[in-house]
Amino acid sequence: MSRHVFLTGPPGIGKTTLIQKVTQALKSSDVPIDGFYTEEVKEGGRRRGFDVVTLSGKRGPLSRVSSDSSTSRRECRVGQYVVDVVSFEQLVLPVLRNVNQGSDAAKKICVIDEIGKMELFSQAFIQAVRQMLAGSGTVVLGTIPIPKGKPLDLVEEIRSRKDVEVFTDLQEPEMKWHHDF
Predict the structure, then answer these.
(1) In Å, what is the CA distance from 8 to each residue of 26, 30, 113, 119?
(2) In DSSP terms, which residues pair with 176 in a beta bridge?
(3) Which SMART domains match (predicted)?
(4) Residue 46, exposed/middle/buried by CB under 10 A (0-12, 13-18, 19+)?
(5) Which residue ranges make up each domain of the chain?
(6) Model pTM score
(7) CA 131/CA 27 separation, integer angstroms
(8) Residue 3: CB partners within 8 Å, gap ≥ 6?
(9) 3-state percent breakdown (helix, strand, coil) of the chain, nearest 5
(10) What CATH class is the domain 4-38+93-180?
(11) Which span out of 17-21, 34-38, 63-67, 172-176 was modeled with the highest average pLDDT?
(12) Terminus-to-terminus CA distance in the chain, angstroms?
């Protein structure tokens, strides 16, 4: 049986919504859980970027639409978005380290929504995710993007792991996994 569960699919299919529902159900059952999800930031009905929100409620910018047409070599960009790697790491890395600590006897669940292009600008994040997947004390519930364009190394590693189940159709009957999670 797979230990880690990842959801994938095109934007807007409901990956984050499903993750949030499962997270609430697990929290209400007193299951030890922590992690983060990403959320759209809109202004005047237009997407301005994305925030990272920890399960404890802390929020910070992941990316924003660039207001400047000139680009710095050091800027991390995905399309029109400039990624705030420092803010992302300040919020997410302490959460991942905290979940990964402790005894293996006390299994924990870590929500990682998502492992995508923006998040992968952080080498420290990549290392933390690899450590978490390799450890025995944490179960990861996460999201990854559908394959498109150049493959993302960490995402492909996750897809090929024997201890990972990847669900692509969030409407499938077997999506009832979350009741047993």
Answers:
(1) 21, 27, 10, 16
(2) none
(3) AAA
(4) exposed
(5) 4-38+93-180
(6) 0.88
(7) 24
(8) 139, 163, 164
(9) 35, 30, 35
(10) alpha beta
(11) 34-38
(12) 12
